[in-house]
């Protein structure tokens, strides 16, 4: 949010830092890293508990990393592209309405400012000046709620999701590659829980929330996921003997 600070003429824009500015990148990054770490670690825990060989565990980890990264990128791209299409469609509707009936759109913008607390005369003046400068931008921002910060960027979202997934999944794969076969399962559990604590705390800190709550909620679900897959892998491994 920009705040006008008078330091002598002309006014100087002072950029305040708010947590909502992190929401766009934070969502994709946290989701990707958490999913990469947890899904890959849980898969490897299940495979390891099922008495798979060292090579089989590593192969499963690499396959999960590659497939998961592409799946995250594709899913995020499709989702954000749909959002972008909706935004563009809404802007096109506003563009047609501004061309067809600018006076009505002026009154519509004036009414928005009146609802926000301006008196009619001032609201009319503000609406007229903003529409004279950039009518579409004024309606996009104040009627549709579309700002540069809220603009959908499919490519960026897809790359962020894929990259963060790989960063998260890389740790379980490295464990599968370099830890002794007999120690893979306990090291996977310990490392994954520790990383989930860090990931949850950092995400909560960036979003302005409680670090303790952020860490706790991802650890609980992470532990449940790994326990469940390990149990299933163990049972299926025993049945296959």
TrEMBL record:
Keywords annotated in UniProt: Membrane, Transmembrane, Transmembrane helix
One Pfam entry name: VIT1
Membrane-spanning intervals of the chain: 157-178, 184-204, 216-236
CC per GO annotation: endomembrane system
Annotated localization: Endomembrane system
UniProt GO MF annotations: manganese ion transmembrane transporter activity
The keyword rRNA-binding belongs to this UniProt entry's keyword annotation: no
InterPro entries hit by this protein: Ccc1_fam
Membrane topology, record value: Multi-pass membrane protein
Gene Ontology terms describing biological process: intracellular manganese ion homeostasis
PANTHER family: FE(2+)/MN(2+) TRANSPORTER PCL1
Protein name, as recorded: VIT family protein
Species annotation: Acidithiobacillus ferrivorans
């Amino acid at each position: 949010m920009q705040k006008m600070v008078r330091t002598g003429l002309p006014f100087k824009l002072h950029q305040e830092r708010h947590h909502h500015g992190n929401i766009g990148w934070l969502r994709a990054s946290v989701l990707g890293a958490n999913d990469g770490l947890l899904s890959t670690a849980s898969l490897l825990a299940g495979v390891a508990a099922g008495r798979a060989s060292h090579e089989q565990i590593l192969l499963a980890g690499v396959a999960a990393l590659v497939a998961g990264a592409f799946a995250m990128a594709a899913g995020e791209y499709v989702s954000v592209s749909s959002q972008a299409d909706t935004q563009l469609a809404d802007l096109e509707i506003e563009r047609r309405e501004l061309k067809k009936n600018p006076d009505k759109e002026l009154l519509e913008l004036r009414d928005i400012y009146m609802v926000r607390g301006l008196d009619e005369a001032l609201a009319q003046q503000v609406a007229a000046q903003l529409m004279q400068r950039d009518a579409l931008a004024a309606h996009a921002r104040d009627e549709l709620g579309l700002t540069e910060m809220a603009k959908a960027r499919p490519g960026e979202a897809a790359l962020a999701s894929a990259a963060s997934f790989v960063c998260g999944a890389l740790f379980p794969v490295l464990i599968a590659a370099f830890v002794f076969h007999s120690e893979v399962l306990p090291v996977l559990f310990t490392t994954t829980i520790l990383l989930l604590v860090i990931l949850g705390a950092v995400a909560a800190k960036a979003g302005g929330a409680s670090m303790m709550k952020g860490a706790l909620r991802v650890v609980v679900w992470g532990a449940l996921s790994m326990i469940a897959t390990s149990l299933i892998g163990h049972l299926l491994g025993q049945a296959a003997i």
